[in-house]
Hints:
The structure holds two protein chains of two kinds.
Chain A (H helix, E strand, L loop, with lengths): L3 E3 L3 E4 L5 E3 L1 E3 L5 E8 L3 E8 L6 E2 L6 E7 L2 E6 L8 E8 L9 E3 L3 E5 L1
Parallel strand pairs in A: 2-12
Antiparallel strand pairs in A: 1-4, 3-9, 5-6, 5-10, 6-7, 8-9, 10-11, 10-12
Chain B lengths: L2 E3 L4 E5 L4 E3 L2 E3 L5 E8 L6 E7 L6 E3 L2 E6 L4 E6 L8 E9 L6 E3 L3 E6 L1
Parallel strand pairs in B: 2-12
Antiparallel strand pairs in B: 1-4, 3-9, 5-6, 5-10, 7-8, 8-9, 10-11, 10-12
Amino acid sequence: DVKVTQSSRYLVKRTGEKVFLECVQDMDHENMFWYRQDPGLGLRLIYFSYDVKMKEKGDIPEGYSVSREKKERFSLILESASTNQTSMYLCASSKGQGGMNTEAFFGQGTRLTVV
Amino acid sequence: AQKVTQAQTEISVVEKEDVTLDCVYETRDTTYYLFWYKQPPSGELVFLIRRNSFDEQNEISGRYSWNFQKSTSSFNFTITASQVVDSAVYFCALSENTNAGKSTFGDGTTLTVKP
């Protein structure tokens, strides 16, 4: 059974902390993505990567960075967490060189609360 | 820029009713891909269907059917004889056809099926 696994289901962090959200996929997919989901705003793309050590900014990259040192792992980093980063974070992966024009597989999400 | 509009924020039906979820998209690309995903209460988005811009054939899969009309830029999703297990948030998404293509998601439609 194919899987995208996010390291935490729920996370509570303090303002100003550096936060790491980890995502691992076991499908040997080239592409990986980080989205945040907020009520009434749907899913918004933060960053994506179509190869190891490659990264591209999505629609809302401010306040975030990413790391992809290995093909199966894509980390989202909040350099200095703020309350407006309280959200549901979704990791996804897809096959193929670049693009999300094949079906994407999603993790179960990490609900981050910044206090 | 791409845009996906799901005008229906919430829909409530009684079991066995048919229900149609609307999706209207905007893109300047001639080649693109459309998707529907289901997000049950567990949080993990599940892929339902992918359609490329050159394939306007409607598709039926069990109780699910999709109507793609390029002339109106719509990709609507119908559930026939709805069931309680269909209760979820449904997302329509549009992906460009480039090497580093990204998906744009609609805001989602929350479907509640009451027994």
